[in-house]
Every structure is written in C-alpha cells, then in structure tokens.
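Predict both folds.
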Amino acid sequence: MNPNELTLDFSVVRDLRKRAGMTLDNVSQQSGISIAGLSKLERNQNMVELDTLYRLARVFSLSATDLLNLAESCSAQTKQSESYTSGPFHFEKIGFKGIDCFRATATRGDELSKPEAHGDELEICWVQSGSIQITLPRESHILKPGQALKFDAALAHSYQILEDCELTILHIEKTHRF
C-alpha cells in the first residue's frame, strides 16, 4: 500500500451503532441510507460519499469531520513522555495531534514571563498542589489546588510561582470550522 494513501475504517460506524443500542434499521430510518448500504459501509465494502457521511454523522450527534476522524484513526495510540526544563518549570510532556499535555513542577519564587511559543492554541493550567499567579494583558488570577484557568495562549501571559507547585498544563489546538 502507498504510504500516502488514506485508509479509512468505517467499521467504527458499527461500534457507534451498537454503543447507541441501535439496529441497522434504526440508523437507516434516521439517516435515509439503505440497510444494505450501511451494512457494506460497516464492513468497508464501499466508499462513503460526503452527503452520506454527513447524514450518518448526524444520527450519532457528530459532525461529518468527527466521523471521518474516527474512521481515519480508530486505533488507540501510545506515546512515551519526554522530560525537560524550561525556565523555572520541570516538564514531562506527551503530545498527540491537536493536544500537548504537560505535567509541570516549579519552586516558590520562580517566574516565567515569556513561556514557550504557542501556535493558535488554547491553554489550560490546572493546579494540583501549591499556588501560582497567571497574569494576562488585562487580568491576573491566583490558582490554588483544584483550580484551573483556560485562556488563549496567543495572549501574552506570565507565571509567578507563589508556593512550590505541581500543575497540569494543556495546549489544545483551536478547531476552525468553516
């Protein structure tokens, strides 16, 4: 198989259908797609057209893009974390398409005024222990254990470590739907 060739596995439709407790007939009635067509699709015996993808996705309260993504990568992925230091933070990082997950620790009194460069992402900072102050252009937040802050990572932001802390930081790619 050509490595550039896109492989789609629509057996995920069967998984979605069964998880929803639906029969082929139920899905057929709600989508307007024939039972034979659905059965072939679930067994990867025919290709799906855009209109079919859209109608089928709506049955499961998904977007056509979400259903296509499930068909493209229905297998779980494992990764090994990488450890590194950036400014006052010691990180363990795991990255997958669209999201980077960081476990971070830092020591009281440390500051970071120019965090690592971000793309077009949202950032979530969740404090497990200690406390931290996050300053954005027009606001400042002090977070304690169990608290989290979500903001646009494109904004200038800084961290001031108020107490030795352990954090989870997520960088989530923004989705642009047209």
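Second protein follows, with its predicted structure tokens after the sequence.
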Amino acid sequence: MPDTAARPDASPLDAVFEALREHDALPSIGQTLARLTRMLESDTEAVQELANVILADVTLTQRLLKLANTLPYRAGSVPVTTVTRAIMLLGFNQVRAAVVSLVLLDGLLGGGNVQRLRGDFHRALLAGCLAREVLAGAGNEEAEEAAIAAMFRSVGRLLVAVYAPAAFDAVRAAMKAEALGEGAASRRVLGRSFDELTEAVLKLWTVPDRIAAAAQPLPLRLEAPRGATERVRAAAHFGDEVACTLAANGGAALEKALAGVLARFAPAVAVERERLTELLDAAATRTRDMEVACGLSPTESPARRVLDALPADSQLGAEAVQPSAERDAVGRPANAREILLAGLADATESLARGAELGAVIRIVLEAMYSGLGFARTALVVRDPAAGVFRTRAAFGEPRANFSFPARGADLFHAALAHASDLLIANVDAEKVRPNLPDWFARDFAATRSFLLMPLVLNGKAIGFFYADRTMVDDRGLAPDELNLLRTLRNQVVLAMRTK
C-alpha cells in the first residue's frame, strides 16, 4: 500500500492516485473493467471475447461457475461446467455485469481488506442488484448497465477506504459528528467528494461514456427519463441510495428514510413501498448469491435485516469441475480427463436443449482449452466461395487467426486430405519444419507444438480443430484424452448435421 505518512504535505488522495498508477493489481483491474464495459452483445465474437476475459483468471472462472450453479440460475439438473454454457444460461449482459462486480470488488478488497470493509462491499453489490431489478422489464442491456453503473458509484468510496483508511475514517466521523452528507464530509476531508473521485477514476480507466455518465451525480430535482441513458442513470442512483439508506438506518428511522428516497425518486423511478419490498427481496437474493460466489457469508452484512427475511441457506447444485492447480510441465491440469468429461456432458446437454451451433462449438473449444491447458484453441472452417480456410471461433490470446488457400502441399493439407489427426510435439523437428507452410512460420512463430483434428462431414474435411502450445510437448496426449477429444469433435459434427 502506498505510504504517504513520510510526506507531511501529502494529500490523502495522493495515496489513492499513486495506487492507481503503481499498485500491482489496480492498473490491470482498470484495463479489464474498461474492456468489459466496452463490450456490446452484437455477435458471437463478443461472447468469445467475454469468455476469454473470464478464462484468463482461474479464480474469476471458478466464482462465475459457482454463481451459475446456484438454484436461482440453474436450468435442469446438469451442473454448469463451462464459461460458455454459463453465458448461454445467464445471458451475455448478466454475465458481463457479474464479472464486472467480481473484478471490481474482489480486486479492491484483496489483501485483508474484506472483513474491515465488509459493509461497503455488501452495499455496492446490493446497489447493483437493486438497480438491475428496477429495470428488469425494460430490456436486458439497460438492466445490466444500470447494475454496473450503480456499483461504479462506490469506486471512489472504496478506493479511499482501501488506500487512505485514516481519511476514510475521518469522513465517517465528520458525517456522524456534524450530521453532514457523505459528499460534503468527503469534500471537507479530501478536498473533493467521493463522487468527484469516482468520475476521475472512471475517466482514467477509460470506462465508456454511457456508463461513466450513468454513475455521475443526479441533479437535485428529478424528472421523468427521456430515453434509455436517463433510465439507466436514474435506476443506478436509486439502487445506490436505497443501499446507502439500508446501511445507515434501522427501525423507524429506516422506514422514514426509505420514504424520503421514494419521494425524491418518484418522478424518475416510480416505485411504491410494497413494490420496493419485492425489489429488495429479489436484489437481496441476487446479492447473497454473488457473496457466496466470492466465498463470503451474507450473515456478516450490515443489511442483514433484509436478508433475514429470506430462506437461510442458498443451496448450491453439484460443483463444477475446476482445473487442478497441479499441472505438468506444459500446463496440463492433473484432472484433465474429468474436465474433458464435464465439457462433453455440457455439449451433450446443450445439443439436447437445441442450442445453436456456435454455442456447442464454443463449449468444445473451451473444454479443450481448459482441460488440456493449451495456449490457444480454434475451429477453422472452409469458405467455399473464397476457396480458403478461415478461423470461425477461438479461445486464448493472441487469437489463432487462420486464412490460407484450400489447396496446397504441406502438413496441414495432407492431414485434411486424409482426414487424419495430426499431433506435432516439436515444430522445429528436422522432419517437420520443412513441411510446414510459409504462412505458419510467419503467423505462428511462437508455437512450438500443436494438434490438428479434421472435421469431416459427408466424407470431406470441411474444417479442423486446432490447439497449440508455446513449448515443446514430448508427452503428447494419453489415449483416453485423445478419445475424449474425438468424442467432443463428434458433438460438433452432430450439431452441424442437425442444423
């Protein structure tokens, strides 16, 4: 943590901005949040990019899968074992909002801060979940962006609490002793309000304007929203103010404070008292699920009076299979077979439910990627009109981009012509390198071993699955691993035949 105590002239905010520049986690958190909030569900590439962001962080993957396996989210008896299927079940925007909350809050509250800031953590989560419930009928994208904006409302507050704790305590003391609002108290102690700090941080993180604007303070006099942007902003602030009110009040004072919030927001968010109770119940359930996914107990929350009205336990379904921390020299997890089997079950279940072809493809690619620890996996298909093979979907970064003529004389074309699986342990081997195409040496310079598995339909290779590593793989694949990969490939063939 930055130390400003040695500099008497240092402002408490110096520690915050120094952390934003130099702390090991914060710059990458900002980059990830900016990338997530820029995503729009426009095509399968967006789904693929979202899955790649999640899979790049093992802890994030585990927490998302745990969330997807809670009873309110589960569909059917088969556990969710892949990120791709979690996106299919929960929806692109819901997963994106959940991942934003996990990245933001887990990143800021690491290093022993969780218990000290437990209430603020809950407050931010509840605000986001409540904002989402307010717009649940307006459209999925609006609801999830309101959830993200509501959580971002807490960024300035949390950064000060983590990196300038003495100043944070002074703000709270001023609020209590002088009956000041949080904005006035934080401006007195810090020289700028938590809201102003939030605005500066979101700009530093290059969060899209539409979300940054939704997190900015509202005018004192509210009016009916004139479009989606204003609806999102109003819902985000409503969620934040209700969460703050729950955290700061109890008993009769709570009822009076909530009535004040409802009256102020009436022109922009028309919610009656009974409807607020329904929204809080739904938001509290979702908040509890998020806390469980983060490994926290909701009973520690200062808003326990809301949660106590709900069933005590949030039962989880069967645990998803997670890659073992024990890995071999090339990164293959010790439980590779179990992960591949789970992926196969996922693909089979998705086929039975009539999932689109692209979803089945992504499940298979993810199972290969996670189960065998490959650096990248891809499905490449033939484009008959252009006479070339092109990448259709891929996992891992940098993305494995293929574009080469459908005809040729090299190892790739030989494997496709004979519909033969090809496993190259070392691309620099004497008998291998001369038979690789020039484009491979140019575009795949970092690859040291790879797998090619042709995709055959009606007797012809219409494409292939590809997976590679940046290191030599002398061990190769065990017979059961290869058989499982072939079975996974067959699920894609089956999906193609039924579409």
